[in-house]
Amino acid sequence: NVHNVSTGLFPYLENVSYREYNYAKDHYTPWHSSSLAENRFEKICREDPFGLILQTSWRIIRTYPDGFRQDSSNHNAVYAWNYGIQMAALNFQNEDDIMPLSYGKFLDNGGCGYILKPNYLINAYKTRYSPLDSQLNLDFPQVLTLTIISAQFLSRSNSTIFDIPDPYVLVSIHGLPCDHQTRKTKVIQNNGLDPIWNEKISFRIKYPKMALVYFSVYDYDAFTSDDKLAHFCLPLTMMQTGYRHIHLRTKNNDSTHSTIFVHVDIENDDENIFSTRL
């Protein structure tokens, strides 16, 4: 038996049913957590989004994929993070496009698995933060300009196929809905060793602290769907300016010898300088 004094040192959470904000405020404490299947979570987001955000400012809420996902696919964890959800459970056995976003999200803070929320999420009662209100001015908007220069040592999409890749780079921003954007380069024919693009793309991002930058390299195919060769995702707040090699990952977040050579420029968005920020 564990001594009663020792048990007081063990951190724990008591799972309780999710209730509306006023009830939770009066009856729940910070160690009371609630788990929401994705359909229930989406229903609450439609009916009482601000109440959900307020609860995530002082207690832990968890979401998880619904049981109808027999293929072990994942719900969009970015949607949950936008509402302040601290724990978005995922099906790790399925390497879909959501998993790289999760790996990228938690690269920050040394990759320890814990990251701080922006102040406007922590102080939501004061800021009235809403992920769907693009008129709120709570962050410092930025312009991200990337020059996709070249790539090196891209693998074939399938090791049993001898076809040389026809690569292109797709860059997407994932965060608040107002910041979701995608750009892609032209296709380079028959060159997986050292394709050169020298293409410049830009993104105007209103909420940089919530934004993830997702690099994907695809093999173009005229007759079937394009195959993803490798990828890398990271928070915008971790990006450093200047010339950079992006070391790409493949399925299961395994490292590769493939890289993208880029130039990164990040500037304040002078056309969207706001007077009210936290």
Kindly describe this structure.
By secondary structure, the protein is of the alpha/beta class. It folds into 2 domains: 11-127, Phosphatidylinositol (PI) phosphodiesterase (TIM Barrel, Alpha-Beta Barrel); 142-268, C2 domain (Immunoglobulin-like). 18% of the residues lie in helices and 31% in strands. It is built from 8 helices and 12 strands. The chain has helices at 4-7, 21-27, 38-47, 49-56, 77-82, 98-105, 119-122, 124-127, and strands at residues 14-15, 32-37, 61-64, 87-88, 142-152, 167-174, 181-184, 196-205, 212-219, 227-235, 242-249, 255-268. It has a 4-stranded parallel sheet with strand order 1-2-3-4. A 4-stranded antiparallel sheet has the order 8-5-12-11, with no helix packed on it. Strands 7-6-9-10 form a 4-stranded antiparallel sheet. Strand 9 and strand 10 form a beta hairpin. Helix 2 packs parallel to helix 4 (49-56). The radius of gyration is 21 Å and the shape is globular. The protein starts with a helix and ends in a 10-residue tail after the last strand. Mean pLDDT is 91; it is low at 274-278.
Secondary structure class reads alpha/beta
The ordered H/E elements are: HEHEHHEHEHHHEEEEEEEE
Which CATH class of the largest domain applies here?
Mainly Beta
Radius of gyration from the CA trace? 21 Å
DSSP strand tally: 12
Helix content: 10-25%
Q: Separation of termini?
A: 48 Å
In DSSP terms (H or I, runs of 4 or more residues), the helix count works out at: 8
CATH architecture label name of the largest domain: Sandwich
Number of domains: 2
Low confidence ranges: 274-278
In round numbers, the mean pLDDT is 91
Question: CATH superfamily name of the largest domain?
Answer: C2 domain
Q: CATH topology of the largest domain, what is it called?
A: Immunoglobulin-like
Largest sheet: 4 strands, parallel
Percentage beta strand: 25-35%
The best one-word shape is globular
